[in-house]
Amino acid sequence: MSQTIGFSQEYQPVIDPSMNEIEDHYLNRQAEAFLNEISTTIRAIPPQYPLPRERELSLFLLDALLHDKYAAHRPAVQRFYKTQIIAALDEMQNLSVTEGAKIWKLYNMGFVVRTKSVTIAFDLTSGESSDSEGFKLSNDIMAQIIKHCDALFISHRHRDHKDLWIAEQFIAQDKPVVTPPQVWENEPIHEKITHLKREAHTLQKLPIKNKTIELDVVVYPGHQMSRHENNVTLIFSPEGISYAHMGDQINEGNFMVDYEWIDHVKEHFKVDILLPPSWTNEILRIVQGFNPGLVIPGHENELGHTLDDRVPFWGDSEYLELTYAELKASNYPVVLMTWGESYHYTPKRSR
User: Is the pTM of this model over 0.85?
Assistant: First the structure.
């Protein structure tokens, strides 16, 4: 069923100050028209591998819309985002997983992964980093998502990956929040956060669900270049499904130390699902180091970034000398998803 993303036809203030009212309102109408078409297509052709051409073109069209400097302030973009996330929440409320894993992609590097017994959240945010009050999700919506999760892992301290209110809600419900030491290091919440050892290939236990389940977890000592601690977390569900979230992991210039463990993860563990940032350089090398059964990139179109730094689904290989195109051309299954979409993984590929 197609879904209209329309907005009120009442007076709309000028959003882009470089435009007059007629020009600016045209972009509102264009966003509405294009997002209606995008919505129709991505619902008819959900996330899958290989990527159908029609779905790929819809994601490219979404790239173009979201590279409007003021995209987060456009009413149709706000409604599209909220509609997508509410659809994901509806799935979370009604879906039981009996085999494999269900992966929901939320905003930026926000993911929720559910297996039969546990539901784990990563880098969960409201979209506040877009700097648009009309774009960000309400506390009520976020509270409902939190209700369905058993633990929260935050990769690093940047605002598009962490949200203090969300972390406080997890802790108030006795659900662990795991971060690197740098996150909220001078805030009262710091002592309530779980800080697992950042140690390559070392399995640790994390009690969840009122200590009725112990997750096996590896926290790789990653970085966003040399300045920021970035946890790369590999989780093993009780059902034996393994998934790794990479946050903003990137190696650049003279800072290449993380390849000492990235290149060898596959020698220590079987990884089913890898959730890397789409913009990290040498992404193909990173994927080869983990050798996963499925790759779902994240971090496309972060609306709080400048236009050149809103990495698109089409890849932009000149940005940071990315190898994204090579990854998509490889034999690794890569599933592209936008906000609120989901994919059901079953471990069929032998490695």
Answer: yes
